[in-house]
Prior knowledge:
Elements: E1 6-8, H1 10-17, E2 23-28, H2 36-51, E3 55-60, H3 66-77, H4 83-107, E4 112-115, E5 122-124, E6 133-136, H5 139-146, E7 150-154, E8 157-160, E9 166-168, H6 173-185, E10 189-194, E11 199-200, E12 212-213, E13 215-217, H7 218-226, H8 234-243, E14 247-251, E15 259-262, E16 269-271, E17 284-288, E18 291-300, H9 305-315, E19 323-325, E20 334-342, H10 346-360, E21 364-368, E22 371-377, H11 385-397, E23 404-408, E24 411-417, H12 421-431
Helix pairs in contact: 2-4, 3-4, 6-8, 7-8, 9-10, 11-12
Amino acid sequence: MSLPTTEVKTEDLTAQTAKTKQLIVQKFGGSSVSDAEGIKRVARRVVDAQKAGNEVVVVVSAMGDTTDELLDLAAQVTDSAPAREMDMLLSAGERISMALLAMAINKFGASAQSFTGSQAGMITDGIHGKARIIDVDPHRIRTALDKGHVAIVAGFQGMTRSTREITTLGRGGSDTTAVALAAALEADVCEIYTDVDGIYTADPRVVSTATKIDRISSEEMLELAASGAKILHLRCVEYARRFGVPLHVRSSFSQNEGTWVLPSADDKITIQEGVALEQPIISGVAHDRSEAKVTVVGVPDIPGKAAAIFQVIAKAHSNIDMIVQNVSTHGTGRTDISFTLPIVEGADALTALRAAQPEIGFESIEYNENVGKLSLIGAGMRSHPGVSATFFKALSDAGININMISTSEIRISVVTHADLLDDAVRAIHKAFDLDGDAEATVYGGTGR
């Protein structure tokens, strides 16, 4: 794989984390703690880190597919569960993991104390199911560390300050919990452990020959995360970049060096000799099956109507990704507006739009969940038309039809039929020579 035009000296960071008395935040995903043996393996790793002279804080996700199983169970009980009760239900998964891991660490000769998100001082707003962290008060964690304990924190959850309600942070929220704690505690590094050896040029479950990336800028990682790469949560990367937290993505199943995500290019950067400074660089290919496409048909083509539509969506707390507005049909004075949003937010968005239909004056709504998004991420792509040509030719040769297109300086994204998405990912990965010489190792997990 091509290296960036600037070389990040991650060996300096690696040496830094090897110093004694470092404060390390380690986050372990559901696949790492999926069963008793996994929990014991993680516990040994945590104990080794503490015995090496480090202060260690651990953030854990729910075991395996526990969160999905709880969602499925709730769906069998009701199709309209109150958001507050869903948060009470889903927060239980991480509490199970934290307690079991603390028990295992104590068994292996170290002292550990577990804390829920609220006990750890994770203060959030009051939006159930997708709360945002507004403050972190880690004094109980700091006290536990000062007493020589390993602090185990349940990820994905927090508490509102005024009403003391339990909230959850949404999918991938444990990553955000870990980075928020790392920032509040001024940790030296936040290690994100998963079931692969780092960040790859594509999901190795889809592209078996994907290449591991040794280091990546926070800007490129933000685009990958926003485009559907599951390895890191978007808000986690945003938080790390804002507060200058170095991220080290590694596998809990091996001792291999992972991928460094650097929050700033202000230091430890040198120009690589002999490399063209404006060479187009491709970091990877990301895909996302979690979005739906909404088309608002027959919108009056006059100023203010698009704004009214997106104000309705905003009030429904739905996050919009790609947007396309068609040219007004000649003689009708009407146009169509299409956008994508998370499937889990689709029902609320549709309800809000239908309620606003008389006021806005559009004709109808089309909703399609059978779509997938593919994104190519890399620096300098906008100024290199050859990248776009290669991208769209590869899709054409693979017989992939495109429904929507969106671009930025370091990203090209398209929406296509969900059934064609894997083929599209493999075609683009091959077209840009991202395939490695060996198959990537996926140690565990389903990627669900």
